[in-house]
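From the shared-data thread, chain only:
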Amino acid sequence: MKNNNTVPALIIAAAIVISAIYTHWATVRSTSSMLDEMEQAVLKKNSAGTTRTTELVEGLVSSVKDGFKRGLAEDDQSSAGGRADKPDLRGKLSLHEVALTPGHDSKEERVVGIVRNDSQSVVTRVMANLTFRDKSDKLIDVSGSSSLLAHPLKPGESVGFEIDRTLGDFGEDEAVLATRKAAVVAVQIVSVETSEK
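Structure, as tokens:
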């Protein structure tokens, strides 16, 4: 006698397909209702009139601000050499003859000057913040520099420095680039490193 498994196989296949369709429909339906519930929870306001999302964002912003403030406080300590027992040498370095000059081409300008080491330590790195203003004293750009020094600066020594500032890219019109040129630059020393450990 011949064994015919076709009918049971078709029944099993149909059951699997129906089960898959039902599972997919139930998943889509539950996902849709879950998203609806989430939307309602997000839009629901508390007694203060704010949503949970607003509270979460405000908490995140507050945490970022606090972390940033702590980081700045740690950076201020490291600017003094990384240890509380090391003096802050930022006041022992002076900047002279700081000037804004044309760059190597029309798409840049340069800040040049002289840094003098009036401390008793060999200075290996000097970092500065630059503030650029237009003729009406309006702030137009800020920048942090890489080290102003090409080599260690011994006590009493002075050395020139140069910082390039890009005004735009090569595809921009000269008139547009001219509007970005600064009239005044201010350079502030923000950190000093020495060769002493």
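The chain has three domains: 1-43, 46-79, 89-194.
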